[in-house]
Each structure stands twice: as structure tokens, then as C-alpha cells.
Amino acid sequence: MTPQPPEPSPRRVPFGELRASHDEREAVVEQLRDAAAEGRIDFDELDARVEQALTSKTRAELAALTADLPRPHSSEGRPPLALKGGVFGASVGPGRWEVPGRVIAHGDVGGVKVDFTRAECRLAEVAVEAYGETAGVTIVIPDGWAADTSGMDPGLGGLKDETTPGRLPGTPLIRLTGSGGMGGVVIRHPNRRERRKLSSNPPAD
Q1: 3-class DSSP assignment, residue 46
Q2: Calpha distance 150→49 (Å, rounded)
């Protein structure tokens, strides 16, 4: 029996030649919009680059569109913030706190509240994983911030997205994933009581 020649090993494609994904295109678009808001590129150039980003086929083409811009602030080296609502619950904010690139909230039996209203956030996007479990999770974001809840499983407790559409330049996008569980997940802007408390206690310089 004549031995068969070995099959050639597949060619390793260089990183820049890899096909770009929808998420990678959107990330570049967000970086370009942030650069325009900071005055680094004008709006005519923004429109041109965004159009190129949305039609880019490879990662190299995307990289060329942001090569002359500072890298977006990275959360590398900073662990995610994990909150678990034990018997007494858990919360972060509304006082000043620095937002990492990822926040994980487990409602457990006491519930969790994540309040971004006075948070310091230098990121274009923050990934929030919320699991309502028994007592639920509440997320409060400032006016002008936007949320993407398309990746959220409402579960039995449901998802209430009470945020208003529209996003101000330079503000982060909260990308919400996870499950509502039994307790549900709510994402909203500050209510009247919270607004009164914020106005009566202005942040220190």
C-alpha cells in the first residue's frame, strides 16, 4: 500500500489579517467618537473614519484608523469589582469610586445596588454582569450615560430598563449581561429621593 503524503499544516494567519468582528468595529467607532469629543479629530474626519470602520474587513484595517490616537484607558491589571448581597445586602456608591472595566453583582438574599452617579470612569465601555438571584440587583447610572441590555436574560424576576435613550459624548456605555433570576434586575437613572440627596450633598472638589 502506497503511503499517503502528510497533509500540509494550515497556514497561521497573522493577527492583522484576521477578519474583524462586529464588536471590534463597534469598539473602534466608540474610540473615534471619544476622540472627536476630546477635539482630537474634527467631525468631518470622524464621519469618514466611522464609515471606513464599519466597512473594514480585517483587524489591520481597523488598527490603521486609530493608529494616531491615544490608546483608550485600559482596565488591565485592575481586578473586576465583585459584589454579593449577603444577609445585609451590598452596595457601592453614590460616593466617589473608580470604575473598573468589569463589575459583577450577585443579588443573593440581601440584594445589591451599584450606583454610578458619582463614580470616576475613564472607560468608553463598562461590562456589568448582574445576577438577580433571590433579592435582585439595582443599577443606577447618571443622566447622559447609556445602557445596552440586549445581552441580558430577564429570568423569572425580569429586567426593567428605565434609562432614557441617547448618550452624551465622552460618557461610558454600560453593557449589561447576566440573568434576572427570581429577584430581577433594574437599571435606571437616579430617582427623586436620590436626586435630592445628591443636590444637598455636592461633591468635593
Answers
A1: helix
A2: 26
- Amino acid occupying residue 179: S
Contact 185, 157 (CB under 8 A): yes
> How do strand 146-153 and strand 125-131 relate by DSSP bridges?
unpaired
70 located within any domain: no
Strand order in the sheet with 102-106: 81-84, 102-106, 125-131, 173-179, 146-153
Grid coordinates given for 17: 489579517
Length of the chain counted residue by residue: 205
For CA atoms 99, 101, 107, 108, the dihedral sign is negative
Closest CA to 166 of 145, 187, 149: 145
pLDDT at residue number 6: 61
The residues pairing with 102 across neighbouring beta strands, listed in sequence order, are: 127
Domain with 25, as residue range(s), is: 16-65
**What local confidence, expressed as pLDDT, does residue 67 receive?**
86
| Residue 71 CB neighbours (<10 A) | 7
Number of domains forming the structure of the chain: 2
- Residues 141, 41, single domain; the answer is no
- Residue 123 shares a structural domain with residue 152: yes
- Whether the CB-CB separation of 31 and 124 falls below 8 Å is answered with yes
Mean pLDDT by 10 residues, the chain (205 residues): 59 64 84 83 89 90 87 60 90 91 94 95 91 97 94 95 89 94 97 90 62
Do 86 and 56 belong to one domain?
Answer: no
Res 76: pLDDT = 47
The C-alpha atoms of residue 181 and residue 157 are separated, in whole angstroms, by 5
